[in-house]
Amino acid sequence: MSGAAKRSLTTQVSDAARHWGPALWVAVIAVAIWQLVAWGFDMPSALLPKPAEVWRAAAENRMELLKALYATGLAAAAGLLAAIGLGSLISVAFSQSRRVRLAFFPYVIFLQTVPIVAIAPLLIIWSGYQFRTVVIVTVIVCLFPIVNSVTAGLMAIDRQWSDLFSLYGAGRAKKLARLQIPAAVPYLVLGAKTSSGLAVIGAIVAEFFVGNGTDYDGLGTLMTHWQGFVKTDALIAAVFTSTLLGLFLFGLVHGTSRTLLRRWMDAT
């Protein structure tokens, strides 16, 4: 390896350490406090297991956790992608007609404000104890940030650019394709980042209900099962697994935006 390559690698490692160092230190301190509380107050494992016990439970149940991680991750990703597609189409309709926006936007807000645990049982009655029900719940949870962000991006057009397109005789379709959609891409990325974490929450909440009537094995199903058997160490391991899944989806959206949409991200 040449000297320049070594210096470049050293710089990258140093930058990564500066970027992730504070977060890692917070994690270390949190685990240390957790250990001290569990040990100092002699907490029973059923109430607050020690970090080592959670790690041991994760290792012992790794196959169940991996299987559940795959099922929940697939549902969360499918719901997120469906929400991005559906939300973008709705946003285009909202941006093209003020009457449509005023008529239907309150119902999009309704989907965000209604408790998902209240409508999940209804969705199970209508859709069944199926994978598709988990995806539907995930779409409902993820839809509002996408619609809100993309609609704002489609309408946040500089008046001078809009007048220039009109001056050259550009129709509504050309203005949408050449001006509004490119300008809305950073807003879409922002909404997708917000929804990436919500996708995991929606999928797990749906699995709390779907897992009761089928052999579907997601993280939410495992949590319900282990909570019933007071396996707190395994339950905490499942919680950490779901957190890692949310971080992975967020990182995937962020990485995709930086790789494929760099020219728009630079403007945000």
TrEMBL record:
InterPro entries: MetI-like, MetI-like_sf
Domain ABC transmembrane type-1: 69-253
Entry's localization field: Cell membrane
Keyword terms, alphabetized: Cell membrane, Membrane, Transmembrane, Transmembrane helix, Transport
Superkingdom of origin organism: Bacteria
Chain ranges passing through the membrane: 20-41, 68-92, 104-129, 135-157, 184-210, 234-253
PANTHER family the record matches: ABC TRANSPORTER PERMEASE PROTEIN (PTHR30151:SF41), ALKANE SULFONATE ABC TRANSPORTER-RELATED, MEMBRANE SUBUNIT (PTHR30151)
Family the entry assigns: Belongs to the binding-protein-dependent transport system permease family.
Name this polypeptide is given: Aliphatic sulfonates transport permease protein SsuC
Originating organism: Stieleria magnilauensis
The encoding gene: ssuC
